[in-house]
Every structure is written in structure tokens, then in C-alpha cells.
């Protein structure tokens, strides 16, 4: 779950959205991948990624492709796939050099958007015989989202399953459409008597794939909970703001710690 009062969750969300995975090593490499998203459709079946080595050493890479799903906790689930092909699968870049990567698919579109990720993974440098490793390095793996758009796009979503108990608000943002959404900003406002503002908190969200829900938790102080009469939850996506207003049931805060 994503906790509003945990700064680490924001950092984790950012890392996940960029697809960055840190493995053992010191002396981080420096390379760039563009664009940061790939979209296919019934008319577009291939795209080009550019990988550039901005470091002062030669870097080695390999590519992997996966289907991308989300579970009930909005965690990323990856499975190896042959739906997406990328060439070259292995390559080396000298300092300042860049390489074009051809990414394509022959998978037909369907009524629901299909989602994938391609990972550009840095490999350890080649070592000569009897050569000892020189310190620790950081190997980086960058994940780029790939979307195979449906035959007809439907955008529909909403806030649901709102529960207030023990100074905590739980709710879900449900994507009821057939394409992904990006919950750019989640805002929760607590209103008291005469709609007086009790609290107003915001945080960044992440991808919500078609047909999935993203859960959120928000902790309140006992005083905030007891003063709040109405909750206003807003989720801003890339093209719309979804709003839900809910009265807090009597006694919802009485069991608070």
C-alpha cells in the first residue's frame, strides 16, 4: 500500500516509474534512453529507442522484454514475453557513442490495451584474465513502458471503497476503462462544520493499468478525524480530474487509538 506519511513511498514511486533498479557496484555509469515511452497501434508496429553512453568508459548492455501487469496492491508483475522484439539484444557503446534500438511487435490489437516493458540492462565490464575487480560499481537497469493501444479507447475511472477507521482513510482509484491512466496528483481534503478546512494533503501517483485499482492510505491525527465531517478525494490524471465526496459515518473515529 502507499502511505501518505512515508516519504520513502514517493521515492519508490519515482524509481518504479523510471524503471531504475540498483544492483551492487560503485562508480555509477551514466547513460540515457529516449524516448521514455513506446506506443504501438493497429497502424504503428515499430519504434526506435536511442541509447547514449554519456560516461567516460565503454559500457555493455542487454535487452529483455516482459508483459507488464499490476496486482491488487498495484505492484508491478513482469513475465518474459515474445510479443515484443528488440534488436540488437546485446551491444556495446564506447564513450559518447549512441545506438538505435529497433522495437516492434506483430501482436494484434484487442479491445483492451496491452502493456509491456523493455529493460535496458547494463552488464559488468569485461575483465581480462587474472584481472582483479576495481572497487564496486553500480549497474543500472532502465525499464521503458510499452503500450499496444486498443481498437477503441475508453477512459473511465473513479474513487471507490472509501473506509474510515482508527484515524485512517483507505480508498482505491479504479481504472474502469480499457487504457492506462497516470494518477498525477492525489488530493484528500477533510472538511469540518460549515465546510471549514481541517486538513488538505497531496501526493504523486503512478500508472494505473486498464481494469486495475491503486490503493491508498492516509493517516489522520485523532483531532483531525474527530473534526472531519466530509472527505473530498480528487485524483488528477493526464486528461481529467476524478472527484468523490463522502460523509464520514458517525462513530468512525470512536475506535481510534
Task: Explain what the structure shows.
The protein has 257 residues and is mainly beta. The chain folds into two domains: 2-148, Immunoglobulin-like; 157-247, Immunoglobulin-like, CATH 2.60.40.10. It has helices spanning 7-18, 222-227; strands spanning 2-3, 21-22, 31-34, 38-40, 46-53, 59-70, 76-80, 84-87, 90-93, 98-105, 114-123, 140-148, 157-165, 168-175, 181-182, 185-191, 197-203, 207-208, 213-219, 230-236, 241-247. The strands form five sheets. Strands 2, 4, 6, 7, 9, 11 and 12 form a seven-stranded mixed beta sheet that branches. It has a four-stranded mixed beta sheet with strand order 1-19-14-13, with no helix packed on it. It is elongated and about 70 Å long. 25% of the residues are buried.
Reading the helices and strands in chain order gives EHEEEEEEEEEEEEEEEEEEHEE
Low-confidence stretches: 1-28
According to CATH, the fold-level topology of the largest domain is Immunoglobulin-like
The CATH class of the largest domain, by name, is Mainly Beta
Shape: elongated
CATH superfamily of the largest domain: Immunoglobulins
Helix content: under 10%
- By secondary-structure content and strand pairing, the structural class works out as mainly beta
Distance from N terminus to C terminus (CA atoms, Å) equals: 21 Å
Whole-number radius of gyration? 22 Å
CATH architecture of the largest domain: Sandwich
